[in-house]
Amino acid sequence: MTFKLKKLALATSVVLSAFMLQACNDADTAANQNQQQTAPVAKAEKVEMKSLETKVIYLDRRMLPPGAVLNVTLEDVSLADAPSTTITSESMDVAGAPPYPVTLDYDAAKIQDKHRYSLRATIKVGDELVMTSTTSIDPFATDAKQPIEIKLDRVAHQAPEETAATGLAGQPWELVTLAGETVKPGADGNMAFIQFDMDKKSAYGFSGCNNFQGTFETSNGTLTMGPAASTRKMCMDGMELEKAFLASVPTYASYVIVDNVLTVKDKQGKEVATFKTGN
């Protein structure tokens, strides 16, 4: 009799343990489900679309070739030592005379108060750049009025039969202005200059006191250069000019040649320097 009671008690204990284990599992499951139900749901990023109305013009009276494509871009140009970031862009086939109205839709949430922005426009035929804007245009400036006018300049191309005087390479370019200021002669009365070697992709010249040399890349009106290396001579005159001249070289982004005058601009379209050649 005692043995049967012990077996009954053992069986009862096993059953109770099973019920308690099941209850714990059910409680854990319910807790997990409750956590899943009450977990915050990630909110989708807010998109606030706005529009910029632009009007693209050019003063060149020549007609555009067939297949011309206009591209207008809103860019973040806040970082001087890094490529611009495209916020939005719009392309369209163009024919006939300007103006060309273009509407740019952009996400206002991507526009930050302390950043700088600029509108840029180009016209290409295939991969060839025909026209480009050369002036920085802030569409969010307090005095900006829509439609915002973007002026294009025709890109100079050097044909094989053209003389060296009409192209970038071959002749020395004497520095005339730097940051809008007229340049005076440097050491020994010599003018600063730069010369481009297209075969070696190297540029060299005189910066006011020392000689310098660097590399460059150019294509369809663009011009980029790395920091220039120079000799280390000390001069009584020309050192201030040299410092400013060499510091400006890495900011080159585009160029245009008109009547033997080379104008170099930065990526915001601001004039950096002008040069002239007597050839």
UniProtKB/TrEMBL annotation:
<feature type="domain" description="DUF306">
    <location>
        <begin position="167"/>
        <end position="276"/>
    </location>
</feature>
<dbReference type="Pfam" id="PF09619">
    <property type="entry name" value="YscW"/>
</dbReference>
<dbReference type="Pfam" id="PF03724">
    <property type="entry name" value="META"/>
</dbReference>
<dbReference type="InterPro" id="IPR039366">
    <property type="entry name" value="Pilotin"/>
</dbReference>
<protein>
    <submittedName>
        <fullName>META domain-containing protein</fullName>
    </submittedName>
</protein>
<dbReference type="InterPro" id="IPR053196">
    <property type="entry name" value="Lipoprotein_YbaY-like"/>
</dbReference>
<dbReference type="InterPro" id="IPR038670">
    <property type="entry name" value="HslJ-like_sf"/>
</dbReference>
<keyword id="KW-0732">Signal</keyword>
<feature type="signal peptide">
    <location>
        <begin position="1"/>
        <end position="23"/>
    </location>
</feature>
<dbReference type="InterPro" id="IPR005184">
    <property type="entry name" value="DUF306_Meta_HslJ"/>
</dbReference>
